[in-house]
Design a protein that fits this description.
The chain is an alpha+beta fold. It has eleven helices and five strands. Helix 9 links the parallel strand 1 and strand 2. Helix 8 packs parallel to helix 9 and helix 9 runs antiparallel to helix 10. The protein is rod-shaped.
């Protein structure tokens, strides 16, 4: 059941109301002009007033099932009026929309027929009962209007269905994006925790174990290990505070080379550093990735490689920036790296994810017993985009 007359809320409904009143008034004026106060004028007046009253009830009625009964009464009153005064046949234009939008299915066809047939008969009688074009014209026009109206309704239903489907798809996509963001955030936090808390605590534990084993020795090894563990723990505490409050990179205010040295020397005091090309400012997220890669690689070298030589090289190239970390330690088979577990194994995975998220590539070349090279390369396109964002 429509919410407004003829299921036409707003401007369309007002147009239907106005057109009905104008046609009803024009038809009454024409009748009086041509027939005057003949013997049927009182019946025509009563039917006209009754028609206007019923129409007013329908126009003002809220949405409920009884509206259909009022529309049937409206059609019957109008049909009786047309048979007594054919001039009122012109009101069929408005009544067509009232019936077609009030009724659906077979009732809709019956309602339209109840408007078109009396209109055709009324116009035929108005023409003197000899002009069959006045009889067939309204019938053909009614069928045509009915077909057009049904096509419009079908298109409207299809559009509504498609809009619902699009809305549902958007809601589903938003849900997937939300889940993906949660997963990405979890991965990012896991990488941050691995590169800060886990690596720092692991290295500190190694120094403390070494200090315990050499505690009774007089050469000061235990004291040096204890001091190194203290430095690592202090740095780890600072990193943890940064992670909790802002998740910022360590030494953001320092040039990249100094920040890399500060991050790596905590784990590898004898590491060597090199720089190629002209240093240039880098966006914060690029710096963050390079620092975390260097930090994670240094922690892994200390924990697993037992290397004698470690070198860190930053290269500023025209189309990219790269970080290369070499060690001559134990090496490993990159293809045989196990999946991460509660015991560890997140290092390489976290490095690769960080670099690839910025459009870069992480290369790992290693052979058991022959050391390892880890190279992170970020393209100039990613640098340019992030530099513009950082400046704006």
């Amino acid at each position: 059941m429509p919410a407004d007359l003829a299921g036409l809320p707003g401007r369309a409904g007002r147009v239907v109301h106005l057109s009905f009143l104008l046609l009803l008034g024009a038809s009454a004026v024409r009748y009086l002009t041509h027939h005057g106060l003949d013997q049927r004028w009182q019946l025509v007046l009563v039917l006209s007033l009754a028609l206007a009253g019923v129409y007013g009830v329908i126009a003002a009625a809220p949405r409920h099932d009884k509206t259909a009964g009022w529309v049937w009464l409206l059609v019957l009153l109008w049909a009786g009026l047309v048979l007594n005064a054919p001039s009122f046949a012109w009101c069929a234009f408005s009544l067509f929309f009232v019936c077609r939008s009030t009724f659906s299915g077979r009732a809709g066809y019956v309602g339209v027929a109840g408007v078109v047939v009396p209109a055709a008969l009324g116009l035929f009688l108005l023409g003197g009962g000899t002009d069959y074009a006045m009889l067939l014209g309204p019938l053909a026009a009614g069928v045509l209007l009915l077909l057009v109206y049904e096509r419009i309704e079908r298109d409207a239903r299809t559009r509504t269905r498609l809009l619902h489907e699009v809305s549902a798809a958007q809601a589903q996509l938003a849900g997937h994006e939300h889940d993906a963001k949660i997963i990405a955030e979890r991965e990012r936090l896991a990488g941050e925790l691995h590169d800060t808390v886990t690596q720092g605590l692991t290295s500190s534990l190694l120094h403390l174990e070494a200090a315990e084993q050499s505690w009774e020795q007089p050469d000061g090894v235990a004291r040096r290990n204890l001091a190194a563990a203290t430095v690592l723990l202090r740095s780890n505490l600072s990193e943890t505070r940064n992670l909790v409050h802002t998740l910022s990179s360590p030494a953001d205010a320092l040039p990249l080379g100094e920040a890399l040295q500060q991050a790596v020397l905590l784990y590898l005091p004898d590491a060597r550093f090199f720089s190629n090309g002209t240093p240039r400012p880098l966006p914060p997220d690029i710096r963050h990735v390079l620092l975390r890669v260097a930090q994670s690689a240094a922690a892994n070298i200390k924990l697993h490689a037992h290397a004698l030589t470690v070198s860190v090289t930053v290269s500023y190239l025209p189309d990219s920036v790269s970080l290369d970390i070499f060690d001559d330690g134990a090496g490993f088979d990159p293809a045989a790296v196990p999946e991460p577990t509660a015991a560890g194994g997140y290092g390489l995975r976290a490095m690769r994810q960080r670099v690839e998220q910025l459009g870069g590539v992480l290369f790992v070349e290693s052979t058991p017993g022959e050391g390892c090279i880890i190279a992170a390369q970020l393209p100039a396109a990613a640098l340019a985009q992030r530099t513009i964002r950082a400046e704006t």
